[in-house]
Amino acid sequence: MWIRVIIDAAIIVFVLTLFFGWRSLMPPRMPVYLTPSDFGMPSEEVYLHTRDGLKLKGWFIPSPKSKGVIICLHGYPGNKSDILTVVSFLYPDFSLLLFDFRAHGESGGKITRFGLKEYLDVEAAIRFIKSRETYRDKKIGVWGYSLGGAVGILAAARYDDIDAIVTDSAFANFPEMVTHYYKNMGPLKYVFSVLSRLLGRYVLRSDFTKNSPEYFIDRIKSPILIIHSRQDNFVPYEHAERLFSSAPEPKELLPVEGMHVGLDRALTGEYQDAVKGFFLHWLTSQRD
Fold it and tell me: Which residues form the domain of 83?
């Protein structure tokens, strides 16, 4: 009898892992509910082409007063419209480029890879900027939220074209986030976590340490501002402390208030002054 119970329980856990795993790898596509015109900003619909063959949809928001171009990266499982409210204050001091990550919003791709491939999406954005003669010599900044912040770090570790980076609520270690995903499962969260990692390795054919920013942040050459809430209920504040500890100078850490999904804090003067001041300090009109 007990053997049957154990076997049935194992089957249930395995099936649930498959369900939750596939749901996380193929997130529902959220609607694009805001556009730059809602904020009075001019924009151009653009398509970015990644080196592994995907087409990503985005908005380029040019500014005649541009002191640089900022690539804005949304979180999981959102899209470019989610962060328009947050980053609009950077215009017109900067031109902005927003796009949907692969498997998100209006972009191509069926599976999200949580940073294992998304750095290629950022590289496609850099190439797009470089293809515009007017902006070719502008310095490039990156602002990223949650997954977008983590991807921004992974990209900055690979590409020297990123001149300044701001992250908000970025995770340091992805396997830890897998375990945290199952936090409501009690002690079973460790079982689900291990099985999910094995499933992820089989489907994505990669080691999840390769999308953990804490192992790459020491390679970045750009200044970084790390923003994180002490009350973050999804990505613990200690992730920000670990990232800050490993990041090379120049670096800044800005503790804020609120939950993980607390983008309303970006509407405060303190937040905007810190982010805009950081970019104004490190991004200039022309490259040296």
Answer: 31-173+212-282
Instruction: Count the alpha carbons within 13 Å of 27 in the hemisphere toward its beta carbon.
Output: 20
CA gap 264, 65 in Å, rounded: 27
Mean pLDDT within 136-140 = 94
Distance CA 80, CA 175 (A): 26
Query: Does some domain include residue 78?
Result: yes
Q: Is residue 201, in this structure, part of any structural domain at all?
A: no
Grouping H, G, I as helix, E, B as strand and the rest as coil, residue 51 is coil
Q: Supply the CATH number for residue 270's domain.
A: 3.40.50.1820
Give the tens place of pLDDT for each residue, 76-98: 999 999 999 999 999 999 999 99
Domain count, the chain: 1
| pLDDT tens per residue, range 143-169 | 999 999 999 999 999 999 999 999 999
Angle ∠(156,157,161) on CA atoms, nearest 5: 45
Query: What confidence score (pLDDT) does residue 266 get?
Result: 81
98: phi then psi, degrees, rounded to nearest 5: -115, 145
Q: Is residue 12 part of a domain?
A: no
